[in-house]
Amino acid sequence: MDKYVIFLIVLVSLIVLTFLLLETLVFFIVNDLSIPTITLSKDIKRVLVIYPHPDDEILITGGFMKKHSKDREITWVVLSKGERGTPNAVLNENLKEIRADEAKRVSELLKVKSFSHYDFKDNEMETQEEKLEKKVQQIVKDSNPDLIITYDTAGLYGHPDHIITSEIVTKIAEEKNIKLWYATNAKRVLDMASLPEHMAKDPNFKDKRKYPNVKVFVGLEGSIAKSKGISIYESQLQSFVSAYPIKWIPLPIYNLPMVYEYFYQVNE
Questions:
Q1: Residue ranges in the chain modelled with pLDDT below 50
Q2: Would you call 77 helix, strand, or coil by DSSP?
Q3: What is the DSSP letter of 123?
Q4: 184 backbone dihedrals φ, ψ, rounded to 5°
Q5: All domains of the chain, ordered by start, with CATH?
């Protein structure tokens, strides 16, 4: 056999082996197999996914939305246009149109049939609490969900918009006796991630964190959808890169093993 052919075979074999080893390593970094896996109950036919900003959903609920858009009625609501989606939350009005377009394209990627995008002031939702609560009340009434998914009461990393959204949604879910899940991640994963905690106003926000008590298998279809969604959120790409603990690992390598998503069941 030609030496050049042998060299190519060995090289390709080494590349494939390295890829498989790297993916195996990342799988155990981004997943916590000790958390029980559940399947979505058949009596849950309508799911409301509600977050304050475009891209809040993609890593922690994107696979779930993609998977269950086939067999459930998924309503996805984004409350702000994300005009402060800059590293230091500096206002950039041009981001409104950019991020709205990105979110719309992601809704199409995830096959979400019901997508609504509102224009509450980014990073100022606390000052709009009464108006925001009325809007969420109407959203819940219109969508009539069997399950609501949002951030936990720590807002994952303390962002005030995340927290006020969670507080309002939690209050309404409790009043209406609707199942509520907080999208979150395993403690080990959150401790490793470089999240933008400088946006937190409450220095003790971690005391309110809810770590997952269940996980949902979203498979390769879900992890690929998340990876594609991240690439669509081009305006926020640097924030995704910054969050990962090992910077030299390409995002697709990180994202493919994310075949589970993690939730805290509030009122099961």
A1: none
A2: strand
A3: T
A4: -150, -155
A5: 31-265 (3.40.50.10320)
